[in-house]
Write a structure and sequence with these properties.
There is one protein chain. The chain is mainly α. It has one domain (18-152, 164-234). The protein has helices at 26-43, 62-83, 86-116, 131-138, 140-151, 165-191, 197-201, 204-233, 238-253.
C-alpha cells in the first residue's frame, strides 16, 4: 500500500493551460510584477491637475478604468496564488475576460491616436508623462493581462467553453463602450470638459460612432485572444474535456489513478 506521502497529486489545471496556476511560481511572479507596475501608474494620478477636484476624478479616463479592472484581476490572481484558491482563480478568469481585451483596445486607441496627433488624447494643460509611466499606463497592462490570459488560464472560465462565447463577448464589449459614453457625458455635465480632447472635437453622433467602433474593436480583440490561445496551447477536444472531468471526479473522491 502506498503511504500518504507517496500518493500522487493530480494537477487541477485545464489540460490546455500552459503553466501551473494558481501557484507561487511563475503565476505568482507575473501577478506580483503586474501589480507593482499598476501601482506605479496609479502614483502618477496624485500629481495636482484639474481632474483631481473634478466630478468623476481620474475615473473619467478609460485608461484608469482599465487599470482598475486589471488591478482587480491581478489582485484576485495573486490571492489565488498565495491561498491556492480555485474560487479566486475562477473569479480572476472571469474578470480577465474584460481586463485583457479592454487593455489591448486602450493601447491600440492611445498609441494610434497619439501617432496622428498627441493633442487628441492628452489635454493641452497636462504635460506628457515620462516614457516609463506612459508604458505603465498604455502598454504594460495590455502585455501582462495578455500573458495571464494566454499562459495562466483555461480557454474559458467554465469547461467546456461556452458555445455562445462570441455573442457574450460582443454584448460585453458593446455594453462597456456605451456605458463609458454615458459616464463621460455625465461627467461633462458637471465639469464642462471631457477627459480626452478628441471627445470635444467630435459631434455627438461622431462620438457615438467612435464608441461603436471601440466596442467592435474590443470584440475583435476578444476573438483574436481566443484564436491566439488556440494557436499557442491547442484546441479544446473531447479527450481533454474527459481529462478535466476525470480529474474533478478523482479529486472529489480523494482517489487518484
Amino acid at each position: 500500500m502506498m503511504s500518504s506521502e507517496a500518493v500522487p497529486k493530480a494537477s487541477p489545471r485545464h489540460p490546455l493551460q500552459r503553466f501551473e496556476s494558481p501557484s507561487k511560481g511563475f503565476s505568482g511572479a507575473l501577478h506580483a510584477v503586474g501589480l507593482i507596475s499598476f501601482y506605479h501608474a496609479f502614483n502618477l494620478v496624485d500629481n495636482p491637475n484639474q481632474f483631481n477636484e473634478s466630478f468623476g476624478w481620474h475615473l473619467q479616463f478609460l485608461t484608469i478604468l482599465g487599470l482598475s479592472i486589471s488591478t482587480t484581476c491581478f489582485l484576485l490572481g495573486l490571492s489565488a496564488d498565495v491561498l491556492n484558491s480555485p474560487p479566486l482563480f475562477l473569479a480572476k478568469n472571469y474578470v480577465a475576460l474584460v481586463a485583457a481585451p479592454i487593455e489591448i483596445v486602450i493601447s491600440i486607441l492611445y498609441w494610434g491616436l497619439r501617432a496622428i496627433d498627441t493633442g487628441l488624447v492628452v489635454p493641452p494643460d497636462l504635460p506628457l508623462p515620462p516614457l516609463i509611466y506612459d508604458l505603465c499606463f498604455h502598454f504594460f497592462p495590455a502585455l501582462f493581462t495578455t500573458l495571464d490570459a494566454i499562459l495562466l488560464a483555461p480557454p474559458w472560465p467554465s469547461t467546456p467553453m461556452n458555445p455562445q462565447a462570441p455573442l457574450i463577448t460582443l454584448a460585453v464589449s458593446t455594453g462597456i463602450a456605451f456605458l463609458y459614453w454615458f459616464w463621460i457625458e455625465i461627467c461633462f455635465s458637471y465639469n464642462g470638459f471631457y477627459p480626452y480632447p478628441i471627445f470635444a472635437i467630435l459631434t455627438t453622433y461622431q462620438r457615438i460612432g467612435l464608441f461603436a467602433v471601440s466596442g467592435s474593436i474590443m470584440w475583435v480583440v476578444g476573438g483574436a485572444l481566443r484564436a491566439l490561445y488556440a494557436w499557442v496551447n491547442g484546441y479544446e477536444s473531447v479527450e481533454e474535456l474527459e481529462k478535466v472531468k476525470r480529474a474533478k471526479k478523482m479529486g472529489e473522491g480523494g482517489k487518484w489513478e
